[in-house]
Design a protein that fits this description.
The complex is a heterodimer of chains A (115) and B (110). Chain A is built from no helices and eleven strands. Chain A is mostly beta strands and 115 residues long. In chain A, strands 2, 4, 5, 6, 9, 10 and 11 form a seven-stranded mixed beta sheet that branches. In chain A, strands 1-3-8-7 form a four-stranded antiparallel beta sheet, with no helix packed on it. The chains are: A mainly beta (115), B mainly beta (110). At the A-B interface, strand 5, strand 9 and strand 10 of A face strand 4, strand 5 and strand 10 of B.
Amino acid sequence: GAVVSQHPSWVICKSGTSVKIECRSLDFQATTMFWYRQFPKQSLMLMATSNEGSKATYEQGVEKDKFLINHASLTLSTLTVTSAHPEDSSFYICSASLGGGYGYTFGSGTRLTVV
Amino acid sequence: GENVEQHPSTLSVQEGDSAVIKCTYSDSASNYFPWYKQELGKGPQLIIDIRSNVGEKKDQRIAVTLNKTAKHFSLHITETQPEDSAVYFCAASIGNDMRFGAGTRLTVKP
């Protein structure tokens, strides 16, 4: 089946540094990938839609200069949290569209802790 | 845009009992309704889905029903087991635009 690999699964970084999270579709091509943020005991909050070869579409209230998204190939999208602060600590999850109305496959998530 | 509401937010059942989670959606154009199970510290996993041209779908102990007229759909888990304990999310989508419910934390007591 369709598998999405997300790395790292967890990361601890210092305030002011940047962190990159990778999302790879392993056995299919994903023209569209999505990035979510999830706070404890809450639902998935869509941050942005990543389209291969074009700029990402950000949801209202999400700072595009802080959360940089790159979707350079049909199998890889990256999310870079720039100048991270403790309030950026969260669980970040990516997903890839299977196309044709077949829904999404999610990555395993990345726990980011900024100290 | 689409708005998905999910109830209850928490659900506790005894092992072997059934569990039902309900969702409503607002956009009648939504045509795909997946359900995801999320265990602690992991990404959501698709457990079952249904399309707008189908009223019911079953996969072993899990079933989903869809009422397009009322714009609501439900997840039914029968013969619950402790390993069913997790957070369950419903979603409604039109093409690539998928919106999620707030989630239901299901606890199955042994």
